[in-house]
Protein backbone atom coordinates (compact mmCIF):
# COMPACT_ATOMS: atom_id res chain seq x y z
CA UNK A 1 0.00 0.00 0.00
CA UNK A 2 2.85 2.34 0.91
CA UNK A 3 4.62 1.58 -2.35
CA UNK A 4 1.45 2.36 -4.33
CA UNK A 5 1.03 5.65 -2.49
CA UNK A 6 4.64 6.59 -3.03
CA UNK A 7 4.47 5.78 -6.74
CA UNK A 8 1.35 7.90 -7.13
CA UNK A 9 3.01 10.78 -5.26
CA UNK A 10 6.11 10.62 -7.47
CA UNK A 11 4.03 10.59 -10.68
CA UNK A 12 1.95 13.53 -9.47
CA UNK A 13 5.02 15.49 -8.41
CA UNK A 14 6.75 14.79 -11.72
CA UNK A 15 3.67 15.86 -13.68
CA UNK A 16 3.43 19.13 -11.77
CA UNK A 17 7.12 19.82 -12.32
CA UNK A 18 6.86 19.21 -16.06
CA UNK A 19 3.79 21.40 -16.36
CA UNK A 20 5.80 24.26 -14.88
CA UNK A 21 9.02 23.59 -16.78
CA UNK A 22 10.10 22.53 -20.24
CA UNK A 23 9.10 18.98 -21.17
CA UNK A 24 11.88 18.79 -23.68
CA UNK A 25 11.13 17.22 -27.05
CA UNK A 26 8.15 14.87 -27.00
CA UNK A 27 8.90 12.03 -29.42
CA UNK A 28 5.77 10.80 -31.21
CA UNK A 29 5.89 7.65 -33.34
CA UNK A 30 3.39 5.89 -35.57
CA UNK A 31 2.61 4.90 -39.15
CA UNK A 32 2.23 7.43 -41.93
CA UNK A 33 -1.50 7.69 -42.70
CA UNK A 34 -2.94 10.07 -45.27
CA UNK A 35 -5.01 12.85 -43.63
CA UNK A 36 -3.79 11.71 -40.21
CA UNK A 37 0.01 11.85 -40.21
CA UNK A 38 1.15 13.17 -43.56
CA UNK A 39 4.90 13.36 -44.12
CA UNK A 40 4.67 17.11 -44.64
CA UNK A 41 3.56 17.56 -41.03
CA UNK A 42 -0.12 18.03 -41.78
CA UNK A 43 -3.04 15.79 -40.84
CA UNK A 44 -5.49 15.26 -38.01
CA UNK A 45 -3.09 13.79 -35.46
CA UNK A 46 -0.31 16.23 -36.32
CA UNK A 47 -2.56 19.26 -36.02
CA UNK A 48 -4.07 18.19 -32.70
CA UNK A 49 -0.67 17.56 -31.13
CA UNK A 50 0.76 20.77 -32.56
CA UNK A 51 -2.04 22.72 -30.90
CA UNK A 52 -1.56 20.91 -27.59
CA UNK A 53 2.22 20.88 -27.39
CA UNK A 54 3.94 23.06 -30.00
CA UNK A 55 1.74 26.10 -29.38
CA UNK A 56 2.61 25.80 -25.68
CA UNK A 57 6.35 25.80 -26.38
CA UNK A 58 6.91 22.03 -26.34
CA UNK A 59 8.70 20.63 -29.39
CA UNK A 60 7.24 17.55 -31.12
CA UNK A 61 9.73 15.20 -32.80
CA UNK A 62 7.93 12.84 -35.19
CA UNK A 63 9.15 9.36 -36.18
CA UNK A 64 7.37 7.02 -38.59
CA UNK A 65 7.16 3.27 -38.00
CA UNK A 66 4.62 0.40 -38.27
CA UNK A 67 2.22 -0.08 -35.33
CA UNK A 68 4.06 -2.88 -33.50
CA UNK A 69 7.45 -1.24 -33.99
CA UNK A 70 5.96 2.00 -32.66
CA UNK A 71 4.69 0.23 -29.55
CA UNK A 72 8.13 -1.31 -29.02
CA UNK A 73 9.81 2.10 -29.24
CA UNK A 74 7.48 3.56 -26.61
CA UNK A 75 7.94 0.56 -24.33
CA UNK A 76 11.71 0.85 -24.66
CA UNK A 77 11.59 4.54 -23.73
CA UNK A 78 12.88 5.62 -27.14
CA UNK A 79 9.61 7.40 -27.95
CA UNK A 80 7.05 9.06 -25.70
CA UNK A 81 3.78 8.52 -27.55
CA UNK A 82 2.41 6.26 -30.28
CA UNK A 83 -0.50 7.44 -32.45
CA UNK A 84 -2.87 5.69 -32.25
CA UNK A 85 -4.38 2.35 -31.12
CA UNK A 86 -7.57 1.13 -29.50
CA UNK A 87 -5.76 -0.77 -26.78
CA UNK A 88 -2.47 -1.15 -24.91
CA UNK A 89 -0.93 -3.87 -22.75
CA UNK A 90 1.23 -3.23 -19.70
CA UNK A 91 3.59 -1.49 -19.28
CA UNK A 92 1.85 0.74 -21.85
CA UNK A 93 -1.45 2.55 -21.38
CA UNK A 94 -3.85 4.55 -23.54
CA UNK A 95 -4.59 8.24 -22.96
CA UNK A 96 -7.95 9.13 -21.46
CA UNK A 97 -9.24 10.83 -24.62
CA UNK A 98 -9.26 9.37 -28.15
CA UNK A 99 -7.99 11.18 -31.23
CA UNK A 100 -10.19 9.32 -33.69
CA UNK A 101 -13.37 7.26 -33.70
CA UNK A 102 -14.81 5.35 -36.62
CA UNK A 103 -16.41 2.19 -37.89
CA UNK A 104 -14.19 -0.50 -39.29
CA UNK A 105 -15.37 -2.52 -42.27
CA UNK A 106 -15.04 -5.85 -44.00
CA UNK A 107 -14.66 -6.53 -47.70
CA UNK A 108 -15.86 -9.92 -48.91
CA UNK A 109 -17.12 -11.99 -51.83
CA UNK A 110 -20.92 -11.85 -51.68
CA UNK A 111 -21.20 -15.02 -53.76
CA UNK A 112 -19.19 -17.04 -51.26
CA UNK A 113 -20.56 -15.19 -48.19
CA UNK A 114 -24.08 -14.25 -49.34
CA UNK A 115 -25.66 -13.47 -45.97
CA UNK A 116 -24.62 -10.51 -43.81
CA UNK A 117 -26.33 -10.28 -40.42
CA UNK A 118 -23.96 -7.94 -38.65
CA UNK A 119 -20.59 -8.60 -36.98
CA UNK A 120 -21.73 -12.03 -35.72
CA UNK A 121 -21.57 -13.17 -39.35
CA UNK A 122 -17.79 -13.33 -38.89
CA UNK A 123 -18.04 -16.19 -36.37
CA UNK A 124 -16.32 -19.28 -37.68
CA UNK A 125 -14.81 -17.37 -40.60
CA UNK A 126 -11.30 -16.28 -41.54
CA UNK A 127 -10.47 -12.58 -41.39
CA UNK A 128 -7.28 -10.96 -42.66
CA UNK A 129 -5.82 -7.60 -41.73
CA UNK A 130 -2.58 -5.69 -41.51
CA UNK A 131 -0.19 -6.80 -38.81
CA UNK A 132 -0.96 -5.22 -35.44
CA UNK A 133 -4.09 -3.38 -36.57
CA UNK A 134 -6.74 -5.60 -34.93
CA UNK A 135 -7.04 -8.27 -32.24
CA UNK A 136 -9.46 -10.89 -30.98
CA UNK A 137 -11.32 -8.26 -28.97
CA UNK A 138 -12.55 -6.72 -32.23
CA UNK A 139 -14.30 -9.89 -33.43
CA UNK A 140 -16.76 -12.56 -32.27
CA UNK A 141 -15.39 -15.77 -30.78
CA UNK A 142 -14.20 -18.55 -33.09
CA UNK A 143 -12.87 -16.13 -35.72
CA UNK A 144 -9.62 -17.23 -37.37
CA UNK A 145 -7.27 -14.26 -37.72
CA UNK A 146 -4.49 -13.86 -40.25
CA UNK A 147 -2.08 -10.94 -40.33
CA UNK A 148 -0.21 -9.66 -43.36
CA UNK A 149 2.17 -6.78 -43.93
CA UNK A 150 0.25 -4.70 -46.46
CA UNK A 151 -3.37 -3.88 -47.34
CA UNK A 152 -2.68 -5.16 -50.87
CA UNK A 153 -1.78 -8.56 -49.42
CA UNK A 154 -4.96 -8.60 -47.31
CA UNK A 155 -7.11 -7.73 -50.32
CA UNK A 156 -5.39 -10.34 -52.45
CA UNK A 157 -6.16 -13.10 -49.93
CA UNK A 158 -9.88 -12.39 -50.26
CA UNK A 159 -9.76 -12.06 -54.04
CA UNK A 160 -7.90 -15.39 -54.27
CA UNK A 161 -10.27 -17.13 -51.85
CA UNK A 162 -7.67 -17.63 -49.11
CA UNK A 163 -9.61 -15.62 -46.53
CA UNK A 164 -13.27 -14.74 -46.10
CA UNK A 165 -13.06 -11.10 -45.01
CA UNK A 166 -10.53 -8.29 -45.34
CA UNK A 167 -10.83 -5.97 -42.32
CA UNK A 168 -9.79 -2.31 -42.38
CA UNK A 169 -10.92 1.28 -42.15
CA UNK A 170 -13.20 2.14 -45.07
CA UNK A 171 -10.73 4.67 -46.49
CA UNK A 172 -7.97 2.05 -46.56
CA UNK A 173 -10.22 -0.56 -48.17
CA UNK A 174 -11.18 1.90 -50.89
CA UNK A 175 -7.53 2.80 -51.50
CA UNK A 176 -6.67 -0.91 -51.73
CA UNK A 177 -9.44 -1.50 -54.27
CA UNK A 178 -8.25 1.42 -56.38
CA UNK A 179 -4.72 -0.01 -56.43
CA UNK A 180 -5.70 -3.70 -56.80
CA UNK A 181 -3.36 -5.71 -58.97
CA UNK A 182 -5.69 -8.70 -59.32
CA UNK A 183 -8.64 -8.20 -61.71
CA UNK A 184 -12.07 -8.73 -60.13
CA UNK A 185 -15.72 -7.97 -60.73
CA UNK A 186 -16.74 -5.35 -58.19
CA UNK A 187 -20.37 -6.50 -58.36
CA UNK A 188 -19.33 -9.83 -56.82
CA UNK A 189 -18.07 -8.13 -53.66
CA UNK A 190 -19.53 -6.10 -50.81
CA UNK A 191 -18.39 -3.91 -47.92
CA UNK A 192 -20.14 -3.90 -44.55
CA UNK A 193 -19.61 -2.30 -41.13
CA UNK A 194 -18.06 -4.85 -38.78
CA UNK A 195 -17.62 -2.75 -35.64
CA UNK A 196 -16.67 0.60 -34.18
CA UNK A 197 -13.78 1.67 -32.01
CA UNK A 198 -11.83 4.64 -30.70
CA UNK A 199 -8.13 5.23 -31.24
CA UNK A 200 -6.00 6.64 -28.42
CA UNK A 201 -2.41 7.78 -27.99
CA UNK A 202 -0.32 5.07 -26.33
CA UNK A 203 2.29 5.94 -23.68
CA UNK A 204 4.63 4.21 -21.25
CA UNK A 205 3.33 3.89 -17.69
CA UNK A 206 6.09 5.95 -16.08
CA UNK A 207 6.27 9.35 -14.38
CA UNK A 208 7.16 11.00 -17.70
CA UNK A 209 4.51 9.07 -19.61
CA UNK A 210 1.82 10.01 -17.09
CA UNK A 211 2.93 13.63 -17.13
CA UNK A 212 2.78 13.82 -20.93
CA UNK A 213 -0.65 12.20 -20.89
CA UNK A 214 -1.83 14.78 -18.39
CA UNK A 215 -0.56 17.58 -20.64
CA UNK A 216 -2.30 15.94 -23.59
CA UNK A 217 -5.59 15.54 -21.70
CA UNK A 218 -5.61 19.13 -20.47
CA UNK A 219 -4.84 20.30 -23.99
CA UNK A 220 -7.73 18.30 -25.44
CA UNK A 221 -10.09 19.77 -22.85
CA UNK A 222 -8.88 23.28 -23.62
CA UNK A 223 -9.31 22.86 -27.39
CA UNK A 224 -12.76 21.37 -26.87
CA UNK A 225 -13.87 24.24 -24.67
CA UNK A 226 -12.69 26.86 -27.18
CA UNK A 227 -14.28 25.05 -30.13
CA UNK A 228 -10.92 24.66 -31.88
CA UNK A 229 -10.93 20.88 -31.57
CA UNK A 230 -14.18 20.47 -33.49
CA UNK A 231 -12.84 22.81 -36.19
CA UNK A 232 -9.79 20.58 -36.64
CA UNK A 233 -11.97 17.50 -37.18
CA UNK A 234 -14.18 19.38 -39.61
CA UNK A 235 -11.11 20.62 -41.51
CA UNK A 236 -9.88 17.06 -42.11
CA UNK A 237 -13.33 15.65 -42.83
CA UNK A 238 -13.68 13.41 -39.78
CA UNK A 239 -16.58 12.98 -37.37
CA UNK A 240 -16.17 14.40 -33.87
CA UNK A 241 -15.51 11.51 -31.45
CA UNK A 242 -17.74 10.80 -28.45
CA UNK A 243 -15.51 12.36 -25.80
CA UNK A 244 -16.18 12.06 -22.07
CA UNK A 245 -14.89 15.51 -21.18
CA UNK A 246 -15.73 16.77 -17.68
CA UNK A 247 -18.76 19.03 -17.56
From TrEMBL:
Leader peptide range in chain numbering: 1-20
SUPFAM superfamilies: Periplasmic binding protein-like II
Keywords: Signal
Protein name: ABC transporter substrate-binding protein
Amino acid sequence: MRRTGLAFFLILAFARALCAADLGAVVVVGPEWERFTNRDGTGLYHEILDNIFTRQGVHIARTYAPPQRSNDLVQAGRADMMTCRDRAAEPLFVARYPMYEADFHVFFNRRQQPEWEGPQTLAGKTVVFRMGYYSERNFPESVTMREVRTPDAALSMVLLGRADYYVDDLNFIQESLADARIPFNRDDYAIQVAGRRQYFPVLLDSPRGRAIEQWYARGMERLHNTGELREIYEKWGFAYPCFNFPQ
